[in-house]
From TrEMBL:
<dbReference type="InterPro" id="IPR001647">
    <property type="entry name" value="HTH_TetR"/>
</dbReference>
<dbReference type="InterPro" id="IPR009057">
    <property type="entry name" value="Homeodomain-like_sf"/>
</dbReference>
<feature type="domain" description="HTH tetR-type">
    <location>
        <begin position="9"/>
        <end position="46"/>
    </location>
</feature>
<protein>
    <submittedName>
        <fullName>TetR/AcrR family transcriptional regulator</fullName>
    </submittedName>
</protein>
<dbReference type="Pfam" id="PF00440">
    <property type="entry name" value="TetR_N"/>
</dbReference>
<keyword id="KW-0238">DNA-binding</keyword>
């Protein structure tokens, strides 16, 4: 079994059961593999957690940016595409689980801080390239991200179509339009 299979299983455990369920025994049991295989790939739980955090950051942030950067170089279209990709991604509780874990583990907290700052900075950079106002760009990046995080934490979470409509309304207004 490949290293990525262990990481995918870790994401599944985190998403459905939370960080307290992320144990070597649980992972081995779910995958039907021995602890020897786990230790071969990661050396121990600390190595696994570091690899898992890196993987989560890549699949939850970097892959979206790579797609957007590859498809267009027009800032407004890039921001629109980024929001569509994020909305289309299957949200299975990982983001919420990571934030809960970050409250208990400083290493995870540092990673989530870096992720949050990177996501905001990327949206800010797109708005800045499109509009040229650094203060406005910072606020727009923060606002879009706050909507994203807040919508995931509402009970029940805001449905994708309603979140899409909220983004469209906000961006249309910010870009000078009046129609929602």
């Amino acid at each position: 079994m490949a290293k990525r299979d262990w990481l995918r299983e870790g994401i599944a455990v985190l998403s459905t059961e939370g960080s307290q369920a992320l144990t070597i025994d649980r992972l081995c049991g779910r995958l039907g593999l021995t602890k020897g295989s786990f230790y071969h790939h990661f050396g121990g739980m600390a190595g696994y957690q570091a690899a898992l955090l890196e993987h989560v950051e890549k699949v939850g942030t970097q892959r979206f940016i790579e797609v957007v950067e590859a498809e267009t170089d027009e800032p407004a279209a890039m921001l629109d595409r980024l929001l569509e990709l994020v909305l289309a991604a299957h949200e299975d509780g990982l983001e919420t689980a990571m934030r809960a874990w970050a409250q208990q583990d400083p290493q995870v907290g540092a990673m989530m801080t870096r992720v949050d700052q990177g996501r905001i900075a990327y949206m800010e950079s797109l708005w800045l390239r499109d509009r040229g106002d650094p203060d406005e760009a910072r606020r727009v990046g923060q606002l879009l991200y706050a909507i994203h995080i807040g919508a995931r934490h509402m009970l029940p979470p805001l449905p994708q179509e309603e979140l899409r409509a909220a983004y469209r309304l906000l961006l249309d207004r910010l870009r000078g339009g009046t129609d929602p």
